[in-house]
Design a protein that fits this description.
The protein is mostly helical and about 290 residues long. Helix content is about 70%, strand content about 0%. The longest helix is centred in the N-terminal third of the chain and has 34 residues. The termini are far apart. The mean pLDDT is about 85.
């Protein structure tokens, strides 16, 4: 009689469906997880590889504190303006009675513009609003309006604010439009039956429901602006003292650069943007309970 084969345990098989996300997993590990781990470990290392907290002590300088404060102000202002303008545009499309044909092009443009940043965006604004840009020269020659004499300089803090709004406003439109679509018509009708005006409906019903979405989107826009580096560097170079530019100066390989100090700067950015993104996720989850 043939001998029984030894029992073997169940073989683990990876479903073929998981192969579809394999490129994403590889990309995330190589360009997100591993670089983040390198930053975290490098922030606590000296240049000889030993453990140290000196990198964080070195952050406590007037220049670094000013860089963080300028970055926070820039992110706060662009997030606030982006939320205000983007909300108004989205509300006009959803509730303002505009032609239905406007919505699709606006959302399509917002999807493109929200990802249009870096050197191309900086070049576009320099060619348009720079010292010899198209609009700058046109206003000066046709109407005698000198933007520089009026105090506007594209290669400055407020110039960077205007440039950041190009991708902040579209991002707000993309995120808040589904939330506005989630406002049920029955709520407005019930408020009208009870005698509420349009302003009272927005103040007592709509805005309290949308508030978690608005605050969460503000946090997301704040994190989006805080982490932007290519646009700021291409537009202002080292003139503006913000964290991404200081970080680039430390890790680009110059003799005077200190990569570990750059890792500490990046670690601080990770903490700030991480907190902002957690706030967005929590508030977004709360708002979806009402808007389902």
């Amino acid at each position: 009689m043939p001998q029984d084969r030894p029992a073997t345990g169940p073989r683990l098989r990876l479903p073929l469906e998981w192969l579809g996300i394999l490129p994403f997993v590889i990309f995330a590990v190589l360009f997100l997880i591993l670089p983040t781990m390198k930053i975290v470990f490098g922030a606590f290392q000296a240049q000889d590889g030993s453990f140290t907290l000196q990198n964080f002590v070195d952050l406590n300088t007037a220049s670094n504190r000013n860089a963080y404060w300028t970055s926070i102000k820039l992110s706060f202002v662009t997030a606030l303006l982006g939320c205000a303008v983007g909300f108004g545009m989205a509300a006009a499309v959803v509730f303002g009675g505009l032609p239905k044909g406007i919505r699709a092009p606006l959302l399509t443009f917002s999807g493109v513009a929200s990802n249009f940043a870096g050197v191309p965006l900086a070049f576009a604004f320099i060619a348009t609003l720079g010292p010899v840009g198209l609009i700058t020269v046109w206003l000066r020659t046709e109407f005698g309006i000198n933007l520089r004499a009026l105090g506007f300089n594209l290669l400055s803090y407020w110039g960077l604010v205007v440039t950041y709004l190009f991708f902040q406003i579209p991002l707000m439109i993309l995120i808040i439009t589904p939330a506005l679509d989630g406002l049920k018509r029955e709520w407005r009708e019930a408020a009208a039956v009870l005698g509420a005006t349009g302003a009272q409906y927005w103040r007592m019903v709509a805005l309290p429901i949308l508030f978690p979405s608005l605050l969460g989107t503000f946090a997301l826009l704040f994190a989006n602006a805080f982490g932007a580096v290519a646009t700021a560097f291409a537009l202002t170079g080292p003139q503006l003292n913000i964290v991404p530019i200081k970080l680039f100066a430390q890790i680009r390989g110059d003799v005077l650069g200190n990569p570990n100090l750059g890792y500490a700067l990046a670690f601080g950015m990770i903490v700030i943007t991480g907190i902002a993104n957690v706030i967005y996720i929590v508030l977004r989850t709360r708002s979806e309970r009402w808007l389902k």
